[in-house]
Amino acid sequence: MKIAGFILPCVVLGVACAVSAQQPAHDQTAPRRVVTTTRLVALFSELENQWMQAVQHKDASGLARLLGDDFQLWTPVASGPVPGEDWEKQALARSLTSFHFRQMAVRSLGEDNVAVSFVLSESVQSGGKPKVEEHFVVDIWSKKGDQWVCTDRYASPLTAANRRALPEDRKPSGKQ
Question: Which one of 98, 128, 150, 166 has the largest count of C-beta atoms within 10 Å of its C-beta?
Fold first, then answer.
């Protein structure tokens, strides 16, 4: 009986190792990843969407409901944080025509804090010409009472080189 209890886990482990050895470490033929939406991803997708709609419609009061009083933007091009008031002036001065999120992930940092990461694609009018900007973004959201507010945004522009390395999202087919 002791041998059977030992052999079964060994067989399962051996099969798992054999299967994983046959799978390539990095499959270049399947650049897309399957995305399933969790409750937190759905909630923060909606909040991020409200944020971008407020920017698109130049709705300062809508932004005020979503951003904390001490909101700051952090980027690799600024030597320090950009205060929320300065970021808001710049954001509302732009002509945002459309936006799109992909690769959204939400990580709980306790009961009242989460980190939300995603790639943000924005279409803006710049000098009369349409321009697409893409950034990798990490937002820190904190719960104040029964409302979530963003306290910090970390945004880094995507370059052509790192844009190619990002897999595209796709809906699950049920065949995986």
Answer: 150
Q: Which residues of 28-53 are buried (b: 16+ CB within 10 A; e: fewer)?
A: eeeeeeebeeeebbeebbebbeebbe
Count CB atoms within 10 A of the CB of residue 164: 9
With 80 as the cut, is the pLDDT of residue 24 above it?
Answer: no
For position 91, which CATH number holds? 3.10.450.50
134 pairs with which residues across the strands? 121
* Residue appearing with tokens 């067989």: 11
pTM over 0.85: no
Q: What is the residue range of 105's domain?
A: 35-166
What does DSSP assign to residue 58?
A: T
Q: 135: closest CA among 149, 124, 150?
A: 124
Residue 90 lies in a domain: yes
